[in-house]
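Trying the structure run again after the queue cleared.
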Amino acid sequence: MNSRSKPSIFKDQIGYVIKLEKGNNDNYHAHALFTFRGHEVKNHKYKAEQIGKYWQEVITKGDGAYYNCNTKEYKKYNLDIIERSDEDATNALKKNVAGYLCKDEQSIKNNDGSDKKIKEFRCSAVAKKKKA
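Done. Tokens:
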């Protein structure tokens, strides 16, 4: 995302996945999943608010909106810190969050007029390990 221009928000980010979709009203919108170092970022609700406000105020200059899924009303998608050994939490991530990001509804249709749908994903690159 924008880690160089806003390190106060993104400095402990590990990665991200963003999916662009087209809604029923033909407006585009995006869903995003950000991962951070859990030992550095303790308050995930606040971190999501920071990202949302940055999107709304800086990137879209007030034209965009955001929804924070780290609230009680979105309990199904509200994950907090996930330990690798926590099977329940990793399964919830796979089923609820990854499943929602990969849903077929609202995918973008192909420009060639066919019914084939295009899923517009963007993600961070995995850092390559340095050779010793």
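Helices lie at 7-10, 44-59, 87-101. Worth checking whether this holds up in the mutant runs.
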